[in-house]
Amino acid sequence: MKSIKGCGLGLRTEFLDDIHFDKKSFAPDWWEVTPENWINMPIWYRDKFEEIAQNTPFVAHGVSLSLGSNKKPKKKYLKELKNFLDTYNIKYYSEHISYSSYDNIQAHELLPVPLTKKMINLMSDNIKYVEDFLGRNISIENATYYHAEKSKLSESDFINELLHKSGAKLLLDVNNVYVNSINHSYNAKQFLDSLDLDKVSYIHTAGHYFDDTVQMLIDSHGTKVNNETWDLLEYTLNKIDVSPMIERDNNIPTLKVIEKEYKKMKKIYDKRASHG
Amino acid sequence: MIKEQVMDERKKQKSFIDQVKGKKKVQKSSIGVYKYLVHHSFFEVITNAYPEFYQIIQEQKLEIEFDKSIFKFMQTKAFSPYIWKMPNEYRKFLKKSKYFDSLKYLDDLLHFEYTELFIFMQKEIKVKKKPFMMKKEYKVSKHISLHKYNHNVINKTFEIKEELYLLAYFDTKLNEVAYRPLNNLLFAFLKFIDKDINLKVNLRLFLKKNKISYKVYAKEFEKVLEELYNQKVLV
Asked: pLDDT band at B3, cuts 50/70/90?
């Protein structure tokens, strides 16, 4: 990720009509795209997507590889994914520390993996398999989890060992760190300090909300970024020089609204850079 | 050793996923959160893809059966990593199940509702435009829908059984999905076409098989086939 500078945004179909390429128009330094949403895209989005790809760098963030699964990702899908990454010259691809399918049946949700040495071995094998297929070193994201089995390994030990064993980079989601820290009662900054931050490729931020029914924070990507998450972003950027971005997947506002959040993020990022 | 390791994780994950997908009773409220999230995601995608179907579910108060069908589908037949393909997997699942037995037209309705999405999601066909010739080989494009319905899905007369041979394709001039009812003969011919044989020979073989005069019908067929070629139905 070192070669991509600045700040990013998740590209959503809702933004397409408002994306222009003259100097006056807003554009992030780079866009993050979810291949599952764009490999087959509706007819009316295609021309604009191509135009954006030609003007702004892309990074890709997948949701369905299910690296914590008992089965390896299907070759047919990996071929389509590689073709997509090659077509749009996307060097950086990331996935999640989770699983979303079991026995090849999809859950279409990121499910928590057991924090065990055995799972580290399983995921490392899957990561290497994917990397060999795609011809790219991939990043893996620390996911939110609402349920945790008792484990001898702490979450940070699990992540660090997985990064070490697999050779993957870490896509650090500071919103997920915050949500997990509240739901599972730990100190978010101490957690960040315990991670191998040298392996971070880039950073996600997003919004969350408190759900009264389950009495937990839910990582919804459906609200603006909370102050606590901005604080964690700033804290992290004071430690490492990487690019951050905003994810928004639900209740998607106009690009104009997201632009305000982007500028807030950019300010934090630039402040850190000027210290550097 | 490796096999043992995998089996151990499998047990944990299997138990978790069985609870999330409603196969086993949820043991902890934190697992219930996932049950809610997964079900919600399936529910949203299916009801968005099938608005008319969901309206019927509500009108006929079939919500409980609908929920049961979603859970069973989640447990068994949701294979594609592409979420837009999920509604079609659900349709195929229902077709082989006993859910909604009273809705005899269900598969027709779901197929018709999904067709529009299917066509919108197809990759653009970049065909070099050459004049249409009966002496050339053509095939029916994979990007269209050619389906025999047992109800008139266009008129929505679901109470009456009526065969409808329907072609759906993307009309590049109008920028929308176009529907064209076909007669059963043309429908059968489009299904009959062998891509390795030129269209003229295909037509001769087909008409002969159906004991129809080539001399009488060839011109009529040629005209329609040229139209279909121009609409990228034949490629």
From this structure: low
What six digits make up the tokens of A24?
A: 């006056």
Tokens of B177: 């999905």
* pLDDT tens readout for residues A245-261: 999 999 999 999 999 99
The CATH code of the domain that includes A23 is: 3.20.20.150
B209-219: pLDDT as tens digits: 999 999 989 99
pLDDT tens-place string over residues A220-229: 999 999 999 9
Angstrom distance (rounded) from CA B83 to CA B41:
10
What is B125-235's CATH number?
Answer: 3.90.930.50
Return the amino acid letter for A132. Answer: D
Residue type for position A261:
E
- Those residues whose C-beta lies under 8 Å from the C-beta of residue B101, and which sit 6 or more positions away, are none
- The answer to whether A106 contacts B77, with C-beta atoms less than 8 Å apart, is no
pTM score of the predicted model: 0.90
Check CB contact under 8 Å for B10 and A70: yes
Nearest to B13 among A40, A41, A70 (CB): A70
Question: At which residue do the structure tokens 């108060």 appear?
Answer: B61
- Burial class from Cβ neighbours inside 10 Å (0-12, 13-18, 19+) for residue A66 reads buried
Q: What's the average model confidence in pLDDT over B152-157?
A: 93
DSSP strand pairing (A105-111 vs A99-102): antiparallel
Dist. CA B141–CA B169, nearest whole Å: 9
Domains held by chain A: number: 1
Separation of alpha carbons B201 and A133, rounded Å = 44
What range defines the domain where residue A230 resides? Answer: 8-275
- Residue B88 to chain A, least CA–CA distance (Å): 14
